[in-house]
């Protein structure tokens, strides 16, 4: 009986620590996305891009298809949103944050740009990876 109790406590503590780690990771990812909206709404695309993996292997899938690379993604944002009028004010609605492993999360959400020249909105899915102890977007599919 005592062995069963000790085993149950060990299992419970193991699952509790996983849950706490997952909660901390989810909070960190949500904070990253909040920081992205702040950076965007301040008109700072370079700061907005700090949440993306600075790699030529970064994948961005948008209305024109798949592109690769952090610099390419930044340049596309600059071309499509050349000023704060075009950028508008960004808002995210996070639908799901799902842990895939210790290193990966999958996020689904909606984005909305409130703009004087006409609002834009759509959905996104993000593959987020922990790299050097920091959560970074490695794949972004926004439509």
What does this structure look like?
The chain has 143 residues and is of the alpha+beta class. The chain is built from four helices and six strands. It has a six-stranded mixed sheet, covered by helices on one side. Strand 3 and strand 4 (104-114) form a beta hairpin. The radius of gyration is 19 Å and the shape is globular.
Quick rundown:
The longest helix is centred in the N-terminal third of the chain and has 40 residues, at 2-41. The chain has 4 helices and 6 strands.
Strand content: 35-45%
Unreliable residue runs: 4-19
Largest sheet properties = 6 strands, mixed
The gross shape turns out to be: globular
Secondary structure: helix percent: 40-55%
Give helix and strand order, one letter per element, not per position. Answer: HHEEHHEEEE
Going across the major beta sheet, what is the strand order? Answer: 2-1-6-5-4-3
Helix-strand category: alpha+beta
What keywords describe this structure?
alpha+beta, six-stranded mixed β-sheet, 4 helices
Helix and strand topology:
Blueprint: H1 2-41, H2 45-48, E1 59-62, E2 65-68, H3 70-80, H4 84-87, E3 89-99, E4 104-114, E5 120-131, E6 134-142
Parallel strand pairs: 1-6
Antiparallel strand pairs: 1-2, 3-4, 4-5, 5-6
């Amino acid at each position: 009986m005592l062995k069963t109790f000790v085993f149950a406590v060990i299992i419970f503590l193991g699952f509790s620590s996983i849950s706490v780690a997952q909660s901390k990771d989810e909070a960190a990812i949500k904070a990253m996305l909040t920081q992205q909206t702040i950076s965007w709404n301040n008109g700072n695309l370079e700061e907005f891009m700090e949440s993306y993996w600075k790699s030529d292997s970064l994948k961005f899938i948008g209305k024109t298809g798949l592109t690769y690379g952090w610099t390419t993604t930044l340049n596309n944002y600059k071309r499509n949103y050349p000023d704060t009028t075009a950028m508008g004010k960004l808002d995210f609605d996070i639908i799901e944050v799902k842990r895939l492993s210790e290193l990966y999360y999958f996020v689904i959400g909606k984005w909305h740009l409130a703009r004087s020249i006409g609002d834009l909105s759509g959905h996104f899915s993000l593959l987020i990876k922990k790299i050097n102890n920091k959560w970074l977007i490695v794949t972004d599919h926004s439509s």
